[in-house]
Amino acid sequence: MALIDLLLDFEDYFPSMVARLGAEAFVGELCNGFILLMDVEKGVITFESLKRNSFLLGLNDMGDDEFLCMLREGDLDGDGALSQMEFCILMFRLSPGLMDESRLCMMDYGGLPILA
Ligand SMILES: [Ca+2]
């Protein structure tokens, strides 16, 4: 599956998930996703951990290029890995319909004005 298809799937998927779970539970789901994908020793998602754990999320047909693209896209501080905050922000950014909702969530998570 190409990354763009994946993103389009997310876009369809997330708003309905938010509607079903509520925003708070949705953030919890994202955090679960992060924990599944992260490198347990480093506490962040790296290229290696993403590659190793992506099958847990059913992303096993993604290629190296797509993983790198996802990392580059989400890595806001340029350390080459995704922190929990970076991962959640990336997931929200993949779903434009959630912008208003995500701003509210981010305020609960430290008030970062990243999506403003
Ligand atoms: Ca980073």
UniProtKB/TrEMBL annotation:
Record has Calcium as a keyword:
yes
- Matches recorded under InterPro entries: EF-hand-dom_pair, EF_Hand_1_Ca_BS, EF_hand_dom, KIC/PBP1/KRP1
What keywords sit in the KW lines? Answer: Calcium
User: Any transmembrane segments, and where?
Assistant: none
Which SUPFAM superfamilies does this UniProt record tie to the protein?
Answer: EF-hand (SSF47473)
Instruction: Specify the EF-hand domain's residue ranges.
Output: 62-97
- Any one Gene Ontology molecular-function term assigned to this protein's record: calcium ion binding
| Lineage: superkingdom | Eukaryota
A Pfam family the protein falls into: EF-hand_8
This protein is called EF-hand domain-containing protein
